[in-house]
Give the backbone structure.
Amino acid sequence: MSSVPLSAYLALGLILFCIGLYGALTKRNIIIVLISIELMLNAANINLVAFSKFGVMPSITGQIFALFVMAVAAAEVAVGVAILIALYRNRNTVNIDEVNTLKH
Amino acid sequence: MENAWIIPLFPLLSFLFLIFFGKRLKEASAYIGILLSLASFVYSLLVLFERFTSPTHKAESVWLTIGDVQLTAGFEVNQLNALMLVIVSLVSFLVHTYSKGYMHGDERFHVYYAYLGLFTFAMLGLVLSPNLLQTYIFWELVGLGSFLLIGFYFYKEEAKKAAKKAFIMTRIGDVGLLIGMILLFWQVGSFEYDEIFAAVEAGAVSSTMITLTAILIFIGAVGKSGQFPLHTWLPDAMEGPTPVSALIHAATMVAAGVYLVASLFPLFTASETALMTVAIIGAFTAIFAASIGLVQKDIKRVLAYSTVSQLGYMMLALGSAGYVAGVFHLMTHAFFKALLFLAAGSVIHAVHTQDIEKMGGLWKKLRVTGPLFLIGTLAISGVPLFSGFFSKDEILIAAWAHGNTVLFWLAVIAAFFTAFYMFRLFFMVFSGESRSDMKHVKESPSVMTVPMMVLAILAVVAGYVNTPWFGTFLGDWLTEGNPALGHGHIEGPSWIMIVATVVSLLGIFLAWLIYSKRSLSRDWLGASTLYTILYNKYYIDELYELTVLKVTKGLSLILRFIETFIVEGIVKGVSGAVSGLGHLGSRFQSGQIQRYGAVAFVGLAILIVVFAVTGGYLK
Amino acid sequence: MTLSGEFFAFISLALVAVVGGVLLLNLTKVVHMVLALVFTFVSIAGIFILLSAEFLAAVQILIYSGAITIIMLFGIMLTRHDDTKEPKTGLLRKLLLFLGILGFAFAFYIGIYNLDFGEVSTTLHENNTEQIGIALYSKYIIPFELTSVLLLAALVGAIVLSKNDQEKEAKKE
């Protein structure tokens, strides 16, 4: 018997997700934005794993899904950092404010 | 005669050709203009001769169909039209020829000829029009041609102002004509002259309406013919080239007002009030303009006021039911006034000034122009045996026979004034000693003098087509088959002719005493208040300045205030609100993905909160 | 909820994770932020162990605390960072976002508060790695292979992205 309820894990995930979201949307440094996105993915992983144990039909699938998320996150970070470096070469900045070519 | 519609097309062709190719032709463009105007003159002459023997020809086709109403376009050759065709095309042809010498060396020579072509086209089209609508169209075109030609020297400030003034003043009259035309159409349901006359004769139109429309149309004529109170543009129009003054502001366009009244004569005769108005305005203008002409110092201005005065005569004749007298005077006036203007142009061409105070003693130097000018002066003064004598006599008789004693005596005094100021002009320019350095005065080339000679011959003999002595051929022909126009000849007491002769000779004699023999001092006149008033043209321009202009300016100031602060305020408010909204929107489009994400997320959060609080649809 | 070892472990791990997150938001130096995040990642690995996912916990430490953090550090080192120069985000936007996130958290908290499906005894903790391996290579074989394709694409993409400009610069020079 577990003494920690499902809602506690979910609440932790929610808090981490909110922190990641806030960081992703307010921080000016692209690296911090990327890290914040990782944090959000991790929060999602906590939820997945928690449901794999305390869900309606507990099974290993939640953990497998979390594994896939990690693989995608790793790929995302690799591409993200590559873009960041390319951007830095072109613009000489990592400030997200100055990345506004979408406007034109 | 079936092909009379070709006549206006010759000058139109000239206009189009010169507008497009004139620049390459330079001075050679004169030949095109002369040739084509000669063609239309010859054709007009043929039409006139044919008209002597055959009846009125009228051809029309449907132009527009609006509901039940059909607007037609076409042409008509009746006696008046045929006569006008010849006068207009002849004067136009002579002016075309004369201008070749006068405008020699001008940079915009071809443009001048193109404008002349346009004007001649419009004028010929005007006299051929069988209905009011077409008349109105050509009426405006004529105004445009006049505007372009007055403003031909547009680099001169006065010419620009004069052109604007002419356009606006005649426009005031045109509005009257337009309203009258619309009212007539409303009442009769047609623009056709024939149908209008038929309706008027049948009593289909109330007498008040006839008077109203007749007076409104007369206002149009007042504007075009420079009658009081819209006369001020005509003297100013003398800023244009002198041949233009001869063509437009002496012989043809200003006569268009008289022509309009003449061609709508049955409408005017149906209303005694309208006739009376025409007669009074005409008589008043005749004496009013003549009195101003007494003291003017610019040779062209004297002639301009004389034109205004003579047009007043014609109006007086028409207003006194003297249809024949009016048209007759229109014809003779066209010849001798064109002659006078061309001669004046020749003088100006020789001495390069328009101030008669600086001229004098030119008789010996201008051996051709001088006598020609004298013939014109004698004709306009009404000296017996010249054309002006017969036509003026007709007018006086008409005025007397119609019972307007006061107007009759006004006309007699105006005749005296005319003789006086015309001979004052003649003596000032040609007799005595030169009053300034006039060493290089040369006679004009024959291309200028020959047209003057033609006009001089006509100015002498044109009167004999309608005289009490040799038969009233013109009058009989004009009124033939149309009793509404009155009798071909109005019998009047023979003393009228004697009075007219005596009065004109008296005027000549007085002018001779003062300006040639100098037995009477000029100073007593110059010092008086009357002189100042006359010299300043009764301060009419200043009066307009004070009343009409001030009021208009005040009104426009108020309107401008409303425009800037109220209308524009609203407009700016609306546009400002919209563009502010747009700016607000565009601030979100900063191109920063983070901001987009923030906005999207906040929107999502609001939706989720709303959903969580209300429970969504399912609850 | 009883006071047990598991409970204490959860509380302490959760506390470290949240503190790491908050530090991420409030520290000024980028390297410090990444380090704070390492704490969070490690404590999340601990949470995974509490949730009987030992293999995931190991992978979490390997991938997140190891690989991703190192990549981030490389990214930081390859670029210039003058945090003091950076303009701060507008206060209004921060406030709005904070309110939005608060509302979002509140709405979800209503959803997960007292969420309990009842506990079913599971065998997840027994031979966890073996279970995952069996599932991956049988039921989830196609997604697994697709993931490898994705990783390959990311690898190629990352190389192309960072190499392309070097060639251009070489040409310029």
Notes: Helices of chain C lie at 5-26, 30-50, 54-78, 91-112, 128-138, 141-172.
